[in-house]
Write a structure and sequence with these properties.
Chain lengths: 428, 428, 428
């Protein structure tokens, strides 16, 4: 009975047309060209490497996409238990009519060829969106992205600010900022002016959020103007030679300035809390980052108090931080729970984390899910995974445990899947 | 089959007459007078505020109880997913014959009027206890509470000591202490004498526990007599101007002294570990506290070793601390697990935390639940929530997973719900 | 339907002949002689003590094994809810034909006598292995264990290194090391030579791993040769009087040296992360250790990067660390998840932790379980507990939630139970 109930709820949720509120899609090149774009996603390369495949075999610059696929598929056996592998199979089934439940040395080439043919169509990206029931996807754009050449109501810009906050010590970042600002950035006023220009530009292009990923030891603090002047001066002039104290003060100042502009122009500020970059230094591309789960939302106390009018949709990397996120969203009007990020984006953690949110955070303050994808094909299996878990939670914990009607449960599911994306990000 | 099993076990647990071992009931004014006393509970005001209702609308001193209810009910829609909302509906159904599953603009006024009429009866508090199958409730009394005018076998006093440990720096607290001591408190000996008097007074009034809530960075340590003398002197004379080091040493000294008196007079010492006060400074009344989940029971190592004869019933604010609590109760004879506190008092966390305790801590060392309520009406829905989860755990994890008989499972449930309250607190 | 599915999967898993990859078995005395060897296991003595039994009654050196059993059994009532108690009953049933579900004052003596008779057989250890379907068990040998007098293909040696890393400050440890080295250990070169000799000896005796348990604040770091020389000199000469800094540097140097030898001779290095020793100083034998769950795998970043060719099977003491372990095993090729250790070896934590690993870590990189036992009889109930939970996860999360066939689920179960023990430790 429970399983039928889950299936019925899933069907209703699955009928919904969605907006994906956080992705890394390149709007000018949104879909895959070959299966290598799919299998080249770090979720596969890092797992294949972890299971023993040498990095050199994966990242060999000389090989063709087809050869890359051949090599990777031969190394997927040890991962066929993972949920990530199931995404691959679901994509093969839904987009390319694949009928098995394993892709291996025997059958991969036919799949590759079918995929390549379909992907070669000029309509492929549109077809993926159609099949995936996706109306729009949010991007994560570098601050100097011209945001030109695409439909910003379908590919919705968001301002990514990691470089500004954490890498202004790099000459390249300073150059890009001055280039996009059209003026020298030499001190606090010119830096603020440049940042203000970014917000103006992004807003004019339908941007719906400012976003940043943050290391576990980051604790935003307001920096005095005097201290900011010294720190920004050091960072701009000494770059990577600036003292750690100056670098930290500069990061804090810029972060705070971003929050001020979010307040001024009315943009939500997506915080993605908890990642340590480059922990496994010999890992594959995008497969080097890990974390320290000893992080607390208390580090953001001053920020949440200082910016009551900025909405902070927050993702946490570790499931052990989810209760704090739940509690802070229950108390702070400006804190919203946002999806299930990266290492917490697997069923056991999603189930535990989503259940805790659904029963304690106001229903209007929960963004259920985003795909975080780099290529459009991934939204379908990732959202499907989430919707199955959401249906399970709604069936078991709301209909059965709490006596809700199916219709009530489905309404709640639809709201966190779609309705809140519209209201929180002012989409539509 | 599982659901029927759960229902049968729940029925047996639900037939039990209970003692609620931790509440904030005012014994002279234990039940609600209007629905505003129920909806004014911080669980509703803070969630309504979090969902967008301005604090000023909630805390407007000019409005009537009825107007306050009208306003709050209009703002409950965004919380109707929460377990807290379900408590409200269950109270409306069980106490006032409400038949729907939503209270809204259409039907609230009739409910308000029915409630007001029932609550106006001189027997209302007794009726609530009767309907709730509550035999007694433990209070949490300020140290200078005269404990007069009520039946202390029904409303059982407990000595709350937060003010003594953390706020002796306040003139008002010093004045209250001297007043109740009937003597000047000027140094360590007079302070000890005053505290000893409190214990004597409370014991004479049937007190069953000493209780305190503690911030996550508190780590009790024994303080030497010399250091204590300096610190207490500084705190008594300089008050809020005392140095942080003196304040900390004074807190530690007083805390340790409380444990000594608990040992002397034979009172359990309820520790509620992990809360940070006033994190959201513009939050509604009692809706400002949050936490840092980076806390460890190792901080209490010295205490548990030093006081083998004091029983410490312990509540932790964050579910991530529950495994440590479970392990420490498994090893230390004087550590008892105590209920599911505040931000961990929602079904997903209760289920995970209670299951872990039930399978690894001696059955005699677990206090299943307390309501933490401010008004009597809340025990019913809160205990009902817990009993449903307890029945689920017993059905799934004991009867099904481990082959227990239903009778064995029900016995375990009854022991953690009621039996252990009697033995741990020496009630009856 | 789910329960039948679980039962079918369990039966298949339960038919497997196993290798137990981590125990504390004494190969010369592997099985129990009386029931007192079973009930004397710290899991029972510490729980009985925690529930109120005085340590003196348990550890009275004057009493017979039978009297010890009588006393303990009279104190097991308060623990009959625990999973540890269920192990005892399962042993009584499977090894001694006991038919009840409680051992108490009425029936214990008959059980004791039956057990004593069976245990007195010269074949008892073999019978236990046979009944338990155990082909081999890994030991945890002190560095100066001669490893003589037993079949090392059945009782597989592993080099335990806690003493070397953390207790070289003790004269007794230095003496043992010099004795086994057959040479004075006076400085870094002679220490390295002695350690090298240990590895050579253990390898010659079929050792399959080096192992160590680590406190939560340990963060391995490479130590320069100069610093090592000073620190080792201080530790060897001043022993417990060596400064804390020297002790820490010496620990780090020795730990790093062990990893170097693991790389050289090709041994996996089992890391058991998170225990604080002697927290409850008046606890019973082996019932004094607890932990601080605030530990992160990031502390091992440098180690994992420095030794890409050493496999690190890792156990974590706290379930809150399990997600980090899962993520690090997903990214680092040399990190393998290893069993469910001690305070996390209870069903609720195993279920949550194992489910998270099974869906995100390559299937080749997970050691499902080890018993950690001191006497052979414990493998049966401990593995049975794990297999039931594994069957539950495979049924609910793979067959039902993800549409796997039963055969696929069983294959995955068999691989983590047995196949990976062979491949990771090079057994067979």
């Amino acid at each position: 009975m429970t399983q039928e109930l889950r299936t019925r709820i899933f069907s209703e949720l699955d009928a919904l047309v969605l907006i994906d509120p956080h992705t890394h899609i390149d709007a000018l090149n949104p879909a895959s060209r070959t299966l290598a774009d799919i299998l080249g996603y770090h979720y596969y390369t890092e797992l294949a490497h972890s299971a023993g495949m040498p990095k050199e075999q994966i990242e060999d610059p000389e090989i063709s996409p087809k050869e890359k696929c051949r090599r990777l598929i031969e190394n997927l056996g040890p991962l066929d238990n993972t949920i990530q592998y199931s995404w691959f199979i679901e994509m093969a089934q839904k987009f390319f009519g694949f009928e098995g439940d394993r892709v291996d040395a025997e059958n991969w080439e036919a799949l590759y060829d079918v995929a390549e043919e379909k992907m070669s169509s000029a309509e492929w990206a549109s077809q993926v969106l159609e099949i995936s029931k996706l109306e729009a996807v949010f991007l994560t754009n570098n601050f100097d992205d011209p945001l030109e050449g695409f439909d910003t109501s379908k590919y919705v810009p968001c301002l990514r600010t990691d470089d500004l906050v954490f890498h202004l010590t790099r000459r390249e970042v300073q150059d890009r900022l001055q280039h996009v600002a059209g003026a020298a950035v030499t001190d606090v006023p010119s830096l603020r002016a440049a940042i203000g220009g970014l917000f103006e530009h992004f807003k004019s292009k339908n941007a719906r959020a400012c976003a940043i990923s943050l290391p576990p030891d980051f604790a935003p603090a307001r920096v005095s103007e005097g201290r900011a002047a010294t720190a920004i001066d050091a960072v701009l002039r000494k770059k990577l030679e600036a003292s750690e104290a100056d670098q930290r003060a500069a990061s804090n100042y810029i972060f705070w300035t971003l929050a001020e502009f979010c307040a001024e122009v009315g943009l939500p500020f997506d915080l993605m809390i908890g990642v340590n970059r480059g922990v496994y230094k010999d890992g594959v591309f995008q497969g080097q980052d890990l974390y320290d789960s000893r992080v607390s939302m208390i580090q953001y106390k001053e920020l949440f108090n200082a910016f009551p009018r900025v909405t902070f949709p927050i993702s946490v990397l570790a499931s052990v931080t989810n209760q704090e996120l739940t509690s802070y969203a229950w108390i702070f009007p400006n804190v919203v729970t946002n999806g299930h990020w990266w290492y917490s984006n697997t069923p056991t953690f999603i189930e535990h984390d989503a259940a805790a949110r659904l029963e304690a955070v106001p229903r209007t303050k929960q963004i259920g899910y985003y795909s975080d994808m780099y290529k459009l094909e991934f939204a379908l299996p990732k959202f499907a995974m989430y919707k199955r878990i959401l249906a399970k939670i709604l069936a078991e914990r709301f209909v059965i445990d709490r006596g809700w009607t199916e219709a009530q449960a489905i309404d709640l599911g639809k709201q966190v899947l779609r309705g809140n994306v519209e209201t929180v990000f002012g989409y539509k």
